[in-house]
């Protein structure tokens, strides 16, 4: 037979002997609550001594912080006062320059007394003439020039010691000559050009400074080595050491002077390198130096008068020759 909707299949089920009854489920009861160490809030008792110690530490830290704040505020006030004093000094000097007749500045270097028969030859005021960013390096050049002069004086003393100990008159005489020549010429030939170069951004003065200062550096290196006739250098100091007390004393003295020459040479090299970096960063060049030299040369009154006289003499000579 074909099973279908008209003839559905017949299922035989066995009737249950007992009716269905719902069985209750058995649940596991929760554990009994008991206070443990983790559940209890930690309690800590602070003694009076510990509380006082903590209070002292807190008060000490507060005092230290207040002292630091006072020091910082004091430093700030002091710096502010220094800046105000400098500003007032600059304002006073500018006012003096404005009130001076024809804006003329009186020479103040070298600083000589008014009753002296010689008068200052140059005007020098780094705080007024030199821009603020270059004042430090110009002062370093000025101090270096003075250090060179002091080393030259020590060189004379070393030459005198050699003359007494070994009868070396040559080193002593040359030391005097070096002091007379190098001290003023170094001021005129490399310090003043550097001063004017930083004052007016002059490429020509920078070129003069580099040329002369490099020569100064080479001479100082030779004097440090102590080539015979150059000064009291290392080689001269080594020759002085002997078994006598006088030789050891003169040797130590000349060695100290040689170290001073070496320090001067090191500072020369440091400053010329630093100034060269500044010079390259300003966009200056050799062509600009040539242009400045030409313009300054043509503006010179003596050059103009000489050119005028030469032209007048040429015209007169031409007229006299055409007349005859």
TrEMBL record:
It is a multi-pass membrane protein. It holds the Pfam family SCAMP. Its main location: membrane. The lineage of its organism: Eukaryota, Metazoa, Ecdysozoa, Arthropoda, Hexapoda. Residues 1-45 are annotated as: Disordered. Keywords: Membrane, Transmembrane, Transmembrane helix, Transport. One of its GO terms (biological process) is protein transport. It comes from Timema tahoe. This is Secretory carrier-associated membrane protein.
